[in-house]
Amino acid sequence: QIVLVSGHLDSWDVGQGAMDDGGGAFISWEALSLIKDLGLRPKRTLRLVLWTAEEQGGIGAKQYYQLHKENISNFDIVMESDEGTFKPSGLGFTGNAKARDIVKEIMTLLQPTNVTDVYDNADGTDIDYWMRDGVPG
C-alpha cells in the first residue's frame, strides 16, 4: 500500500513563486527524512513525488496518474503540500467518514503545535485526479 507525499516546483526562473510551492516540495522531503532519522518503519510505502509543470496545466501530475492509475487500489492516501511554508493550522481533507476519523485521530498528535484542524475539503492540481477517483487526499 502507498502513501503519496508531494509538492511541486512552480516558481518561474524570474518569478516569485518559490514559496508556492517550492517550499511544499521541501516540506514533503523533510517529512520523509524525519521518519527515517527517527528510525520509524512505516507499514506502508511512503512515496515522495516532486511534481513538475503544475502551472502549465498540471501535466506532470496527469502523466503520473496515467502511468499509475491501474494500481489505484494500492494508494491509501495522496497528500500535497501547497500554498507555501507559512504557519500551518491544519489539513484540508477529502475522503469518506471513516478516513476522516482516522485523519482527525492522527491530527491529535499535533496538539503540542496547535496544528489540529481538519478542513472539509482538500484540493490540489497534483492530487485531484486521485481524489476524483475516490482516493482520500
Named at the architecture level, the CATH assignment is 3-Layer(aba) Sandwich
Radius of gyration: 15 Å
Q: Report strand order across the widest sheet.
A: 2-1-3
The helix count comes to 4
Which spans have pLDDT < 50 for at least 5 consecutive residues?
none
* CATH fold-level assignment: Aminopeptidase
Secondary-structure element order, as H and E? EHEHEEHEH
Which CATH class?
Alpha Beta
Q: Helix share of residues?
A: 25-40%
- The dominant shape is globular
- In this structure, how is the largest beta sheet organized? 3 strands, parallel
- DSSP strand tally: 5
Mean pLDDT: 88
State the fourth-level CATH superfamily: Zn peptidases
Can you describe what's shown?
- The protein is an alpha/beta fold and 137 residues long.
- The longest helix is centred in the N-terminal third of the chain and has 16 residues.
- The protein has a three-stranded parallel beta sheet, covered by helices on one side.
- The chain has one domain: Zn peptidases (Aminopeptidase), CATH 3.40.630.
- The model has no long low-confidence stretch (mean pLDDT 88).
- The protein is globular, with a radius of gyration of 15 Å.
- The protein starts with a strand and ends in a 5-residue tail after the last helix.
- It has four helices and five strands; from the N terminus they run βαβαββαβα.
- Strand 4, helix 3 and strand 5 form a beta-alpha-beta unit.
- It is 31% helix and 19% strand.
Task: Chart the SSEs and their pairings.
Blueprint: E1 2-8, H1 22-37, E2 45-51, H2 59-68, E3 75-80, E4 90-92, H3 97-107, E5 117-119, H4 128-132
Parallel strand pairs: 1-2, 1-3, 4-5
